[in-house]
UniProtKB/TrEMBL annotation, chain A:
<feature type="transmembrane region" description="Helical">
    <location>
        <begin position="12"/>
        <end position="39"/>
    </location>
</feature>
<comment type="similarity">
    <text>Belongs to the binding-protein-dependent transport system permease family.</text>
</comment>
<feature type="transmembrane region" description="Helical">
    <location>
        <begin position="214"/>
        <end position="239"/>
    </location>
</feature>
<dbReference type="GO" id="GO:0055085">
    <property type="term" value="P:transmembrane transport"/>
</dbReference>
<feature type="transmembrane region" description="Helical">
    <location>
        <begin position="276"/>
        <end position="300"/>
    </location>
</feature>
<keyword id="KW-0472">Membrane</keyword>
<feature type="transmembrane region" description="Helical">
    <location>
        <begin position="122"/>
        <end position="141"/>
    </location>
</feature>
<keyword id="KW-1133">Transmembrane helix</keyword>
<feature type="transmembrane region" description="Helical">
    <location>
        <begin position="169"/>
        <end position="193"/>
    </location>
</feature>
UniProtKB/TrEMBL annotation, chain B:
<feature type="transmembrane region" description="Helical">
    <location>
        <begin position="257"/>
        <end position="280"/>
    </location>
</feature>
<dbReference type="InterPro" id="IPR035906">
    <property type="entry name" value="MetI-like_sf"/>
</dbReference>
<feature type="transmembrane region" description="Helical">
    <location>
        <begin position="22"/>
        <end position="44"/>
    </location>
</feature>
<keyword id="KW-1003">Cell membrane</keyword>
<feature type="transmembrane region" description="Helical">
    <location>
        <begin position="218"/>
        <end position="236"/>
    </location>
</feature>
<protein>
    <submittedName>
        <fullName>ABC transporter permease</fullName>
    </submittedName>
</protein>
<keyword id="KW-0813">Transport</keyword>
<dbReference type="GO" id="GO:0005886">
    <property type="term" value="C:plasma membrane"/>
</dbReference>
<dbReference type="GO" id="GO:0055085">
    <property type="term" value="P:transmembrane transport"/>
</dbReference>
Length: 307, 350
């Protein structure tokens, strides 16, 4: 009886300690999941639920109505599809080059060099800066009469208004995003490299293996579990990119650098009327993409645990 | 000297400084310029006058024109070095400029007026920090209010985050109860539900709670984090249960066990969570952008964004505000960078 009472008391105490966290999660994470479906299937620009008429899948149909998905101009919601295309290219380019640079950096930092801690700080510092600060730093450098153009002119190279030309603006949002975030992934990859036992390398060195062979046969296979985690993490974040891009280019010129999250923000909050239903539907489509990426990560993590 | 060279060229075992070592150092040198350079350039620029910021090409250091008081003239006159014509090499003060002609005077012989072509002179300048770029933030831009708003949100959210997450982690690591595994999985599952996919309904919840245009509208949605619970729970599992049982034998309440024993012992993990929370809250942009629409409620990030969008705002105070906004996080980094990098390497989260 005493044991049973103690167990009951312990259970009650545990739930008391859990309650604040679960309340916050409930209000701001779990409840909104269900409300999101409600918003996505209702119309009007009113935020309150009773004021919103049921419209079924109309919001999704509106978003997905296209003659050709390869041509945003053929879509009823052309800016949405331009955002989808931009996000797709951004994810491919940003993740691809960021992983490449992060890996190179991790391998450089993994060498036995003096001041390694300092150099790790060098790469990591931008990770801590806020996206607004990051954007303003680069805006100051990239403006027409900024230091980058001054340097190029000094070498008699061609200059341009970097953030006003569509292709260059897109290049720079990828560049700035890599600059701001690669330090994070470098750290994870560096930890992965340092977890590889040194006797493996010593054995390879005894066999006189070439540097490339060591890299392709030892380093990459053993690093692959960490690499997969890094790739999926960066994919998930890249799909949700918004802050530094929004401040740097405002999604322009035109909508050349508008990504999906900016479309959701502008549709639901920034512009009048506030199309909450459309924003919620677009959010759910983005969520579907993120869900696929997350399942990939879980599969990769499980494989890592088994390996 | 040989010690320095030996140190800099130290390699793993081998005595030679070979191609990969040169590539390594070249890469690192480029990295320092590319990663630190932009921040350094902004910091330098923030001390230049508005007119210096308009210069193209820009000068590296904050330089300001030198002016002198000349007998017979009420206003100070700007100094120029003459580079061509009869008076080449002299330093003269400009009375006024008329078209391509600069009317000048020798400060030591002010009786004689000298005409100089404007292409035959360059301004005399000296190193000078334009502190007014910073002071104007407090006089005209309400910077102190935005700073306070950011500090308030960051500090309060961090305190609540540490409290709520450590309580949950304590329950999940130190009690066996029905539903424990389910709750833990549920909390971790929220890692897969970023707030960005629920912006609209979260806004409804915040609105219904009356928290729009209140710092609490930013604080409350942020204080429960799966990262924090996971991190703290993993650490608390390493705290021996015997310590807790000993305290209970002394009739300590469960709250006292948590507050007096578990929390102090979890300090290293709490420190990591504090750092994360400060970074998250100080740097947060999208959610405050949605919830805080009145300028009096703006955080520093919102104010910066708002100012840079305002075409009337000049670069000088904007650069100063950028530096002041990044300074606190830089100081945190300088002091705690080992913990930050170690924490991230272990948890894989930022």
């Amino acid at each position: 009886m005493l044991a049973l009472q103690k167990m009951t008391g312990a259970q009650r105490i545990a739930w008391v300690f859990l309650f604040p966290n679960l309340l916050i999660f409930g209000l701001f994470t779990f409840l909104p999941i269900f409300l999101n479906f409600f918003y996505a299937t209702t119309g009007s620009d009113r935020i309150l639920l009773p004021d919103r008429p049921y419209v079924g899948l109309e919001n999704f149909q509106s978003l997905l109505a296209c003659e050709s998905y390869l041509d945003p101009n053929s879509c009823a919601r052309d800016i949405f599809w331009r955002a989808v295309h931009n996000t797709g290219w951004f994810v491919i380019l940003q993740v691809g080059f960021m992983i490449l640079f992060s890996l190179v950096t991790a391998m450089v930092l993994n060498r036995d060099i003096p001041l390694r801690g300092f150099f790790r700080s060098v790469f990591f510092y931008p990770v801590l800066l806020s996206p607004v600060v990051v954007a303003l730093i680069w805006k100051w450098i990239l403006q027409r009469y900024g230091v980058l153009n001054a340097g190029l002119e000094a070498w008699e190279l061609p200059v341009t208004n970097w953030l006003v030309e569509a292709d260059w603006a897109f290049f720079w949002i990828v560049f700035v995003s890599i600059w701001a975030h690669m330090g994070f992934y470098t750290l994870i990859l560096l930890a992965g490299l340092q977890a590889i036992p040194s006797d493996v390398y010593e054995a390879a060195e005894m066999d006189g293996a070439s540097k490339w062979r060591v890299f392709s046969k030892i380093t990459m296979p053993l690093l692959m579990p960490t690499m997969v985690v890094v790739i999926v993490l960066s994919l998930i974040r890249a799909v949700q990119a918004f802050d530094e891009i929004f401040v740097l280019t405002g999604g322009g010129p035109g909508s050349a650098t508008t990504l999906l999250l900016q479309y959701i923000y502008e549709t639901g909050f920034a512009y009048r009327p506030q199309l909450f239903g459309l924003a919620a539907a677009a959010s759910l489509l983005m969520a579907a993409v993120l869900l696929v990426l997350t399942l990939l990560q879980l599969a990769a993590t499980r494989r890592q645990a088994e390996g | 000297m040989s010690n320095v060279l030996s140190f800099l060229t130290r390699t793993r075992g081998r005595g030679r400084f070979d191609l990969t070592d040169w590539l390594t150092w070249g890469y690192l040198a480029l990295a320092v310029v590319l990663m630190f350079g932009p921040v350094f350039w902004v910091a330098l620029s923030s001390f230049k006058t508005e007119s210096a910021l308009q210069e193209y090409p820009p000068s590296l250091l904050p330089l300001a024109p030198v002016s002198v008081t000349v007998e017979g003239y009420e206003e100070p006159l700007q100094l120029f070095r003459v580079t061509g014509g009869e008076r080449a090499g002299e330093v003269l003060a400009q009375i006024r400029r008329i078209g391509l002609n600069s009317q000048m005077v020798d400060p030591e012989n002010p009786g004689e007026r000298i005409n100089v072509n404007i292409n035959d002179r360059v301004p005399v300048r000296e190193f000078a920090l334009a502190a007014e770029n910073y002071t104007v933030l407090f006089e005209r831009f309400n910077f102190a209010l935005y700073f306070w708003n950011s500090v308030f949100i960051t500090v309060v959210a961090t305190i609540i985050t540490v409290l709520f997450n450590s309580m949950a982690a304590f329950a999940l690591s130190k009690y066996r109860f029905r539903g424990r595994t389910a709750v833990f999985i549920l909390i971790i599952a929220t890692l897969m539900i970023p707030p960005t996919i629920n912006l609209v309904p979260i806004f409804l919840v915040v609105s219904e709670l009356g928290l729009v245009n209140s710092p609490w509208g930013v604080i409350w949605p942020a204080v429960a984090t799966p990262t924090g619970v996971f991190l703290l729970r993993q650490y608390m599992l390493t705290i021996p249960d015997d310590l807790l049982d000993a305290a209970r034998m002394d009739h300590a309440s469960e709250w006292r066990v948590y507050w007096r024993i578990v929390l102090p012992l979890a300090a290293p993990a709490l420190a990591v969570l504090v750092i994360f929370s400060v970074m998250w809250r100080w740097n947060e942009f999208l959610w405050p952008l949605i919830v805080l629409n009145r300028s009096e409620e703006f955080t520093l990030q919102l104010a910066l964004n708002s100012f840079q969008g305002d075409l009337q705002t000049s670069w000088a105070p904007l650069l100063a505000m950028t530096v002041l906004t990044l300074l606190p996080i830089t100081l945190v980094f300088a002091v705690l960078q080992k913990y930050i990098t170690a924490g991230i390497a272990q948890s894989g989260v930022k």
